[in-house]
Amino acid sequence: MGKHTDVTIEPMAVIVLAGGKSAERDISLESGTAVAAALASRGHHVTTVDPAETDLTQYNWSGTDAVFVALHGTFGEDGQVQSIMEEARIPFTGSDSAASRLAFSKSASKERFVQQNVPTPAYVLIHESDDGIRIDRQARKIGHPLIVKPDAQGSSLGVSLVEEPGGLPRALTECFHYDTFGMLETAIAGSEWTVGFLDDLAMPLIKIETGRTFFDFKAKYSDETTSYQFEFSLPTNVVRSIEQAARDACQALGTSGLTRVDLRLDRQNRPWVLE
What we know:
Layout: E1 13-17, H1 25-41, E2 45-49, E3 66-69, H2 80-88, H3 97-104, H4 106-115, E4 123-127, H5 132-142, E5 146-150, E6 160-162, H6 168-176, E7 181-186, E8 190-198, E9 201-202, E10 206-209, H7 217-221, E11 227-229, H8 236-253, E12 258-266, E13 271-273
Parallel strand pairs: 1-2, 1-3
Antiparallel strand pairs: 4-7, 5-6, 5-7, 8-9, 8-10, 8-12, 10-11, 12-13
């Protein structure tokens, strides 16, 4: 057996960005607390900064070695904070501003997926000003069941599964509460999967199981019956197809650093990239 070597990293001055003003503020604060504790446990000098309370464009970054972006949602994931870091020339975690802007917009991501032949469910982009008859017509083209989701939002906020036409109005109201643009997307019957990447290195594949109708906000953060499985029975070629679809999605968007791709595996064991 090889000898284990503990890699020694010199302590760094790290700013953890957490909180913010997005709809995912509370989740971000929890993430930031966990990140700060983990970094401090490794000997780093950690300061947590909340952009809701501090203007980052006026912040004094002197003496900062790196920034850990633990923000979720608008401003933190859509390229805005990344642009500020790039302007200040401060190293930060995650993708650059261009890739972040692209990845945060579900429709823009899908267009890139289609261009690069990444398998993704069919969709239609809608706007809150669209005529109800037009949206209903588009929904019927997509077919039921379908997913309604805000174009730019995270944590499944504003996302609804619509199994029949009568459920569409309520789903649209929920969607447009979070964004002026939304999407109608084909609902893929099957199982939920996620895979993380560190640049091009795939992390272990995870199967997500929930007793709820779909993997919604409550399933992610408050339902204790939700489980994350690292052991499952899948043919090797199917596992590889999921990882390849996820890798192709990352490359299509130009992501870097730590990235996560969410997918559905249909009943024919074909992967479909969601975002």
